[in-house]
């Protein structure tokens, strides 16, 4: 599997880069949770986090409001600054109606489950109508499949192989992917992030 690219959100010439969570693996790096101007996370999955350097730069460019802080400070010879732990964009970023067709988003649409047997292991992609039969690489013709199912299906259509998809392959809405993404909170959540996330599953003290 290839490394996943950082997701980019472009708006009116203003480029806001989303960092893949692998880039912000360590809580020690003090990432800031990025909220939209309506105080909802820009993205749940990957959770919208910026390295502290990016967050501080956005503060100085007056593009964000600081909602909460870390204890940790950075110092220059003349000033000290508490690192922001939650920031909100001043300008609302409207999410695009349809997400990009990427490997990651396709897995997310299918909730990281083989669409033939439901296994979460050893996942690959299946062309529902095989390429050899003219099947294209589109949302409607690609499904998450485990290697054993992929192998069993071979160069056949599901009908020819006597296999059935659990869900019709379709182009998801951004909202749908975000809803799926809410089921996968990251391992680490800073305490100041919790007010802005996961109403439904993060109520334990
Ligand atoms: Zn399978």
Any overview of this molecule?
The chain has 205 residues and is of the alpha+beta class. It folds into two domains: 8-96 and 185-196, no CATH class; 103-161, Orthogonal Bundle (DNA Binding (I), subunit A), CATH 1.10.30. It is 17% helix and 22% strand. The chain contains five helices and eight strands, in the order E-E-E-E-H-E-E-H-E-E-H-H-H. It has helices at residues 52-60, 103-109, 147-153, 158-161, 174-181; strands at residues 8-11, 14-17, 32-35, 49-50, 64-75, 80-89, 123-127, 142-146. A four-stranded mixed sheet has the order 4-3-6-5. Strand 5 (64-75) and strand 6 (80-89) form a beta hairpin. The two termini are 37 Å apart. The model is unreliable at 1-18 and 201-205 (pLDDT under 50). Bound molecules: zinc ion. Residues 114, 116-117, 119, 145-146, 148-149 line the site of zinc ion (ZN).
